[in-house]
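User: Some background: our group keeps a shared notebook of sequences we're curious about, and every so often someone picks one and asks for a predicted structure to add to the entry. Today it's my turn. The entry only has the sequence so far, pasted here. Could you supply the structure so I can complete it?
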Amino acid sequence: MLTISLFNILFTVINLLILLFFVKKFLFDKIDAIIQKRQQEVDEATEAADKAMMEAKAAQKEYEKKIELADEEKEQILADIKKLGYEEYDKIVMDARKTGDRIIKEAKASARAEAEKEREIHADELKDMVIDAAAKIAATKHSSEDDSMLYDKFINEARANNG
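Assistant: Of course. Here's the predicted structure to add to the notebook entry:
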């Protein structure tokens, strides 16, 4: 039969307390130390990840700022290039106008000289024709029919020479 003895209960409780003490001392303390170590590693990893995230965001902001500055610099360079292009265009147009004006003046002067030369040539030819006509008139007797015929001949010769 089953008997309850105080002595057995006391030894059982003492055994349990001793067992609890050893389990706590050798098992739970080590498990707690391992858990704390793991928690510390997780905290450090989280902290490192947060730090890396902050650095990445800072780098991203710096990159965006550099891109913005590069865009502004690009716009400034394009504006400068356009300005230089317009200045060069104006210079080329001005030079072309000056050259065109000079060519026109030279052409007009050349045309005047050529026209004067042609006038002199035609005047000499006309003088020669008048002298020939006068010599023919002087060599022949004068009648109104002869004068009219000589006049027509002179006009026809003048047309032939100029034509």
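Suggested note for the entry: The chain has one domain: 38-156. The two ends are 166 Å apart (CA to CA).
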